[in-house]
Amino acid sequence: MRRDIRLPSVALALGLAACSAENSTTFAGFGQPAGAFLDEGGFGVPTMNNTRIQNGDVSFITSLNTRFSNEIDPTVTFDFNSAVLDAASQAVLQRQADWIRQFPEIGFRVYGHTDLVGSDAYNRQLGLRRAQAVVAFLTSRGIDRSGLEAVASFGETQPVIVTSGRERRNRRTVTEVSGLNQRHPQVLSGKYAEVIFREYVESATERPVTEGGGLAEIATAAGG
Predict the structure, then answer these.
(1) What share of the chain is helix, strand, coil (3-state, %, to 5)?
(2) How confident is the model at residue 157 (pLDDT cuts 50, 70, 90)?
(3) How far apart are CA 131 and CA 147, in angstroms?
């Protein structure tokens, strides 16, 4: 004799609601790939980025410049009517030099800017002098001069803060990736891939061997 077991409609509805709330992140929908809820937004992005660069959809210059801006502050600021690098600016530029040194085959361009006080002609010259000061500092820290350019000055035409008065944030230089340094022998040999390969090799760090528990002892103990 078969019994027809029926749950009260209210209890059934509450049970389904509870399951739905509990599993909403796990089972977002039947139309989504398994494990889709684990993707925080960055899953597969490196592979996608590499593929787009290989296909020419994204310039490696854009990709490398984005990385540079994310890892290193590309901007230094100046006192009014000055192209002198203060201690804070020199500290930022030292970090820029350390980063740039990893990529001797890559060219960088330094853009000089001013605030809106003064004539356009004067400010263009002042912006250029600021860019030249940055290039001189980076060169003094061992960066190849052939990979640095200070040829463009936007003067007062691209302010960060739109104001006709004095504004330190507008009195700045911005360092950006400009492309491959065509005068570098590595580039002329067509070996750009070695730039990436070398970075991976040099970024590897050895684990120190500690007394009483070094890697050698671990390897011996694990031997069969």
Answers:
(1) 45, 10, 40
(2) confident
(3) 14
